[in-house]
Amino acid sequence: MVLRNKGAYPKVCFELLSYMVDNWPEHLTYHTIAHIIDVANVCDHYIEYYGIEEDNANLIRIAAIGHDMGYLVSSKEHEELSISEIRPFLKDVLNETQLDKISGMIRATKLPQSPTNFYEEIIADADLDYLGRNDYDALSSGLYEEFLHYDVVSNDIEWLNIQINFLENHSYHTSFAKENRSGQKHKKLAELRQKRLAIEF
User: Fold this and answer.
1) Distance of alpha carbon 95 from alpha carbon 200, whole angstroms
2) Contact at 8 Å (CB) between 59 and 98?
3) With 0-12 CB in 10 A as exposed, 13-18 as middle and 19+ as buried, what is 126?
4) Could you give the residue ranges of the DSSP H alpha helices within 170-181?
5) How big is the chain by its Cα radius of gyration, in Å?
6) How many CB atoms lie within 10 A of CB 38?
7) Hey, is 52 helix, strand or coil?
8) Contact (Cβ atoms closer than 8 angstroms) between residue 2 and residue 37
């Protein structure tokens, strides 16, 4: 996974990425550096699509790069851990208002998502962009491996039920995602329901 539009990213983003690459847990098969870069790339698309001005665009990019940094410590409450882990890198380059905006964006990725402003909606949708993409199966298989590692599920049918329940209850927030991701997401949901029916009967 390649970070697109690198020249638009603040220097601190590359400091964060370098630190995470050097320390990332090997057992993470979905929440990977590739996932972080994917979310950043989607956010960058939103920034261009909506014409977001530079100051807020930079905060979105920093939040995207740092949103899963808490996994360096634990998978539990990783959003709050991400906020704590990212702060030492940012405290000398951003003011408290900017830090609060980034914290809000990172919290917006917590499930169930509850973004409170447009920028939080962008990162929330970017974090789950894959739900409405053709690479859903490839990426979700990585999440299945993680869930097995953390004993969230123990077999295929439990994983299938989790996917169906999640897709049934998920809604995108931005107009772009609603228009360009919801259709594929609903197709995947129908496919998973059919798969479950075939197993049950």
Assistant:
1) 56
2) yes
3) buried
4) 175-180
5) 17
6) 21
7) coil
8) yes
Name the token pair of 177.
């995602």
Q: Which two tokens stand for residue 92?
A: 């000398």
What does pTM read for this prediction? 0.96
Contact 172, 182 (CB under 8 A): yes
Residue 8: name the closest of 46, 49, 44 by CA.
44
CA atoms of 176 and 127, how far apart (whole Å):
14
Asked if the peptide bond before residue 112 counts as cis, ω within 30 degrees of 0, the response is yes
Q: Are 172 and 180 in contact (CB under 8 A)?
A: no
**How many distinct helices (H) and strands (E) make up the chain?**
10, 0
Quick check: 109 and 102 in contact, CB under 8 A?
no
Q: Would you say 19 and 28 are in contact if contact means Cβ atoms under 8 Å apart?
A: no
What are the tens digits of pLDDT across the range 138-170? Answer: 999 999 999 999 999 999 999 999 999 999 999
